[in-house]
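Before drawing any conclusions, I looked closely at one protein's amino acid sequence and its backbone structure tokens, quoted below without any editing.
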Amino acid sequence: MKYIFVTGGVVSSLGKGIAAASLGTLLERRGLKISLQKLDPYLNVDPGTMNPFQHGEVYVLADGSETDLDLGHYERFTQCVLSRSNNVTSGQIYEAVLSKERRGEYLGRTVQVIPHITEEIKACIRRLSWTSSVDVVITEIGGTTGDIEGLPFLEAIRQFILEVGIGNAIIVHVTLIPFIRAAGELKTKPTQQSVAKLREIGLQPQALICRSEKPLDREVRQKLSLYCNVSYEAVIEARDVEHTIYEFPINLKAEGLDSFVCKALKLQTPEPDMASWEGFVYRVIHPKVRVCITIVGKYTELQDAYKSIYESLTHAGASNDCGVDLTLVDAERIEHEGAEKYLRRTAGILVPGGFGDRGVEGKILAAKFARESRIPYLGLCLGMQVAIIEFARGVCGLKHANSTEFDPATPHPVIAILSEQLTVENKGASMRLGRCPIIIQKNTLAYRVYGRTEIQERHRHRYEFNVHYRAQMEKYGFVISAISPDGDLVELVELRDHPWFLACQFHPEFQSKPNDPHPLFQGFVAACIANQP
């Protein structure tokens, strides 16, 4: 087993997750089996209860784990199907150690960061190694070198590398090389200081991924090599990509990162076959047509809140040889100013998930505009619920129909809490989560999109369509096109007299990949192209 640890220095948001995922792409296309892991220093047990404005989207794995959004990059860039072992937080580590202490497993000894916390961190890395039949494990450490909360993880890695042997593990350090415009030059000192901090801890990076807006000349590379104690060939330029993040693996290959890593870890592999990846990138950069799609959401100000949705639309666009131009509209604007102003010129409307009543009436108006204007509509999770509320109000005449999440006293609770959620008290990891089987009805738009009757999709919700209103709504052209195997839960709905209107209770964005786009997004983009104003 070989191990690659990805650390970050100077500042946060340098793209360690993209770097780790891109390296995984290259190694996988060399024929190696890989797995990726994220170690997050924050004390939350998982990001499931964290505000999207603070943390970005919560990425849901097949086993129901609520994880960091970087795991989305890992699954999109590789063939990995990850599990709860692939995302470890300080909260999980301390919770495990304190549980052992309460059970008396430490035999009365004083419990300390070293060795007990570091041993638990190492156990999480080993556990992934034991449960994954892979050649290489890539582990990203969240945060920035020098952060106090990250020190136990770095110390654990120092110990781990000694245990597995230096030839079996390397450190790849992602760092910033700022360009000072007044001086007209790149500065290496921040990276030198970052690496010096790592070396104080006892860690020596073998490679540097240098984020920069300017190319690194020979002099800069030589200085980094000399002062950071890495070989010249291991100074990897990583300029901001021009068009799409999917260019990043291609750029790292051109810099020779994968060749250096294989050499350092004594891995004998052929050159990576990047033909299909390069073909996808070409279609993203050079589409034959372009289409405008509007996303009506609650967290549109934050780039990472709907990360998987944006990427899924990119995948679907490329499969249709189409560039997708996104217009992001805050649902509260539509609530206060009306839908016509923001939606009249769009080719398609997508309403994503969310929690709480802020902006919900704006989302309902967006669904109404899509229905009445016959514009392609894709609703995800809450996007399905608002479409149901709108249809109940606007077509079925159920005045004040609502979800009990937003109005517990509504006379028509067309959306209600799942029965198993009634006794739930803890908010963390308590929703209906993860991959569940779904049965699609034939002779529906959903069946035409998927081409089969049985699918598996990932969920994250507490509320569901109230089936007591099924007959009443179906009478007016409401179609339930997919259900759970027991028939109790509604998974997909559509409108009988609309050219393309689909809404799902699950999150299809968590299963889309560059060369394997999700059918719902693929069909939605195709419908938007046909509806281009």
Notes: The chain has two domains: 2-278, 288-530. The two ends are 55 Å apart (CA to CA). The chain has a mean pLDDT of 94.
